[in-house]
TrEMBL record:
GO molecular function, one term: GTPase activator activity
Pfam (any one): RGS
Biological process annotations from GO: negative regulation of signal transduction
Main location per the UniProt record: membrane
Keywords attached to this entry: GTPase activation, Lipoprotein, Membrane, Palmitate, Phosphoprotein, Signal transduction inhibitor
Purpose: Regulates G protein-coupled receptor signaling cascades. Inhibits signal transduction by increasing the GTPase activity of G protein alpha subunits, thereby driving them into their inactive GDP-bound form. Plays an important role in the phototransduction cascade by regulating the lifetime and effective concentration of activated transducin alpha. May regulate extra and intracellular mitogenic signals.
Membrane protein topology class: Lipid-anchor
Name of the featured protein: Regulator of G-protein signaling 16
Length: 203
């Protein structure tokens, strides 16, 4: 825009711009170009949102499938972190969570490599779960208890194997079937099934 009249606003603006350093003008143009690129690419933000939604949907499908797999076998339940958490919550309602805690302690114990730590961990687990009148005594027979006691003298990663197996069998035969029939698990399967039906109806 140009103007020959004295006092014209456009003329004043042009004079003002002319007095600015060239670097300032170049930066202003560069900024304008960048803003233009961002304003004309709304799909960038849209893409990020879509990606997040897809990941969230995928996680929900995975968790739904996982919940339904827990009823296939006790092994499937124990392989799942969220399954173990749900089962532990259920066992608390029956005041028998020490069985699962002992099983988990044994699993952690098997991963120990240091012989010094192995011995100290073995004694701690025995005192907490296995010995008679232990604070969180698990339900195993006297013979298994004595075998485990003897194993402590030369603690290895297998010294709790028999006691762990007995506790696992007890949970599988006794607590696990009740967990599958519990109201909490039934609610979880209903939600998982409804999410599966909803997914199929949208495909």
């Amino acid at each position: 825009m140009s103007c020959w009249m004295p006092g014209c606003p456009a003329l004043s603006m042009c004079r003002g711009l002319a007095t600015l350093p060239i670097t300032c003008l170049e930066r202003a143009k560069d900024l304008k170009t960048r803003l233009g690129i961002l304003l004309h690419k709304p799909e960038l933000g849209h893409g990020i949102g879509t990606s997040s939604k897809l990941q969230l949907g995928s996680r929900r499908r995975d968790s739904s499938r996982e919940v339904l797999e827990w009823r296939e076998s006790f092994d499937q339940l124990l392989k799942s972190k969220s399954g173990v958490t749900a089962f532990h919550t259920f066992l608390k309602t029956e005041f028998s969570e020490e069985n699962l805690d002992f099983w988990l302690a044994c699993e952690d114990f098997k991963k120990t490599r240091s012989k010094t730590k192995l011995a100290s961990k073995a004694n701690r687990i025995f005192e907490e779960f296995v010995q008679s009148e232990a604070p969180r005594e698990v339900n195993i027979d006297h013979e298994t208890r004595e075998i485990t006691r003897k194993n402590l003298s030369g603690a290895t990663s297998t010294c709790f194997n028999e006691a762990q197996a007995k506790t696992r069998t007890l949970m599988e035969k006794d607590s696990y079937p009740r967990f599958l029939k519990s109201a909490s698990y039934q609610d979880m399967t209903k939600q998982a099934t409804s999410r599966g039906i909803s997914k199929r109806s949208h495909t």
